[in-house]
Fold:
Amino acid sequence: MKDKLIINKKSLKGEDGYKTFSIRIKEETVVNLDRLADETNRSRNELINILLDYAIENSEVK
Structure:
């Protein structure tokens, strides 16, 4: 008897723990993000997530 090929169901779009939305951002910030993306070999999206996570974790409300 041959082993069966098991194919797991693919997550539906939007169910990977991420949400998609748009924001307005200054041109200067885009330039800086692109420069940082080039320097780190990371995507702009990945950098935005890293930077937002850091900012949220290091924010204090007074």
